[in-house]
Amino acid sequence: MSAMQGLLRRSASANGYSPISWSSAKKLFHPASAQRYRCGFVRSLTLGGTFPRSQPERPDLRAGDYKFSKGKYLLSSFCSSSALFSTFPTPTKQMANVPYLKLNNGKEIPQVGFGLWKVTENTADVVYNAIKAGYRLFDGAFDYGNEREAGQGVKRAIDEGLVKREDLVIVSKLWNTFHEKEHVEAITRQQLEWWGLDYFDVFYMHFPVALEYVDYNKKYVTGWQNLDGKIVQSKATIQETYQAMESLVDLGLVKTLGISNFQGSLIMDLLRYARIRPALLQVEIHPYLTQVELVKYAQSVGIVVTAYSSFGPQSFVELGWDKAADTPLLFEHPIITPLAKKYEKTPAQIVLRWATQRGLAIIPKSNSPQRLAENLSSASGFDLTQEEVDSITALNKNLRFNNPPDYLGDLYIFA
């Protein structure tokens, strides 16, 4: 044992920590990290994986489950050489202090993820850089048309040892044109092939509406219209589709089921026949569409709610939608901007913190490294008062931007 290793071990013991063996350390981290400094204690300090002495060694758990701050302090005190720091690997668990939400099937998801809607340029690089920034949940869908490219970004990050597959929560969705039971498994397997994965962590029914089947080889993405340019509903029921999705879990293709764009009565009906309860509900939520009662109901039956389009009109202005263009931007709203100044945060962080304090998961996106970090920190670090949360909730106008009749002239899903 070197003098430095001995000093670190004595310092750890004095602070209530016990060293772990190198063999255990290798189980905690990616095999690519199994290199220099074969002192499990030094490695565990660097990665926040030190074990309180009162707790038995748990090589089945990851480093992110253990204390970090004290270990970091000890390392900086005794290993100040930049050369030494550079030899330690990157943690495989999410680096930022992002809370995890427990689902009704016992699994967990990060409260802040990265949404892939409208990520159509340099998608692989965007996903890879988001992983480097600490994102661990990626919310995709067949309809986004970028699953192959997103999978390339994931593969690059895994190949380089930034993460392991099990560190990531990969989300996708079943599109409306594949609701018949005979199409559900086939399109899911195709989507997994595009991602380069064996399973999805979460798989949603994207909308509670079934449309006529469209062969994706003839039209990708299939969209809302058939090959004749018409919107034609199919006869598949929500029950038929959901039970086919339950079979995906039985086959190991999907770990967790979710529903998206469902309203309360549809959820109540689905729960009557669901063999595998949906664990997640993804719906549009922002200060102009707070959905208080829907959130309250979903949470009361053990369903975690994920908010999409958290910034309201901001996401839709670039699509040229009049409703969005005519709505005041939340980032400039006189309720939001004083709070941003008070807490020394951006307006976006205030809006996101309003959502996370309601217990919602969020899936913002950005190409800016600074905004990536800001968004990721929006589930912790500061708290709005209840009065401030209520003042933002009071902005509600029941204003829905993703409303199919507005852009299709049909399918009154939310009527």
Task: Please explain how this structure is put together.
With 415 residues, this protein is an alpha/beta fold. It has helices at residues 3-14, 22-28, 40-47, 69-78, 82-86, 123-133, 147-159, 181-195, 238-250, 264-273, 292-300, 314-317, 322-325, 336-343, 347-357, 369-376, 386-393, 404-408; strands at 17-18, 51-52, 100-102, 108-110, 114-115, 137-139, 169-174, 200-205, 254-260, 280-284, 304-308, 361-362. The strands form three sheets. Strands 5-6-7-8-9-10-11-12 form an eight-stranded parallel beta sheet. Helix 8 packs across helix 9. The longest helix is centred in the middle third of the chain and has 15 residues, at 181-195. The relative contact order is 0.10. This is NADP-dependent oxidoreductase domain-containing protein. Keywords: Oxidoreductase. Belongs to the aldo/keto reductase family.
Domain unit count: 2
Terminal CA distance reads 71 Å
Physical arrangement of strands within the biggest beta sheet? 5-6-7-8-9-10-11-12
| Rg over C-alpha atoms, rounded to the nearest angstrom | 23 Å
Please summarize the sheet with the most strands: 8 strands, parallel
The named CATH superfamily of the largest domain? NADP-dependent oxidoreductase domain
| Helix and strand sequence | HEHHEHHEEEHEHEHEHEHEHEHHHHEHHH
Morphology call: globular
Helix share, percent: 25-40%
| Unreliable stretches covering 5 or more consecutive residues | 1-94
Count of alpha and pi helical runs = 18
Structural category: alpha/beta
Portion of residues in beta strands equals 5-15%
Briefly, what CATH class of the largest domain?
Alpha Beta
Q: Let me know the average pLDDT.
A: 83
The total count of strands amounts to: 12
CATH second-level architecture of the largest domain? Alpha-Beta Barrel
Instruction: From the 3D structure, determine the CATH topology of the largest domain.
Output: TIM Barrel
Keywords: Oxidoreductase
InterPro entries: AKR, Aldo/ket_reductase_CS, NAD(P)_OxRdtase_dom_sf, NADP_OxRdtase_dom
Family: Belongs to the aldo/keto reductase family.
Pfam family, one: Aldo_ket_red
